[in-house]
Specification:
6-stranded mixed β-sheet; two-stranded antiparallel ribbon
Amino acid sequence: MVKIVSLDDFSQVVAETAKSAVGEFVLIGGLAVGAWAQYFNVPTGGPVFSKDIDLRGTRLVAQAMAQGMKLRGAKIKGLVAARRKEPAGLGMNFVVPLDLADGRSTVIEVLEALPWVDDGPDRPYGFGVEVEGIPLLDPLSLFIGKLHAWHHRNDPEKTSNDRLHLELLGEIIPQFLTEAERRGVDTRERREVLLGFLDLHTTPLSPAALAGLREALQTGETPSSR
């Protein structure tokens, strides 16, 4: 796993950008998985690192993130906008390469839509949940996005990261559903969609973990909470 940045490198700027109303966005990718794991006390063996930070949002979000990092001493090396060709129909990606104040090189990548998660005419799908000022994509949608990555990446190192993230999400989702039920958050649509993907695609989860995840998705809570 490439260990370049953790959420701590960006958390203040993400929180400030969320408050500035430059556009709705959520943190996605491995750093979002790590944030959910920390929230639910799921062991990760230490901080979750990544080669970059990934967000779902707009050009304005990419620009606001770049400006916020620049104010903290980062060297911004441009903003590249590209229409995603594969898979088609998912809009634009906005990429901001930068050097952090301590010299580490990384990237802010903002995607307008995620493969499998946002396929369809009414995207984006899923919902954001603010945790300690950080807007996170819900864990069920994160699982769908990571499942796509696990099935489509050719890089073994990145695929191993996707495997780890999916295994963590397998533990996170039942706890998330229990809390959502307690708070009165309707998760039925996301649960049905994820169950559909589990019917169609293999996962790296163990048989026991997959069975527990399916049961949680069918009931909306962890088995131990009943």
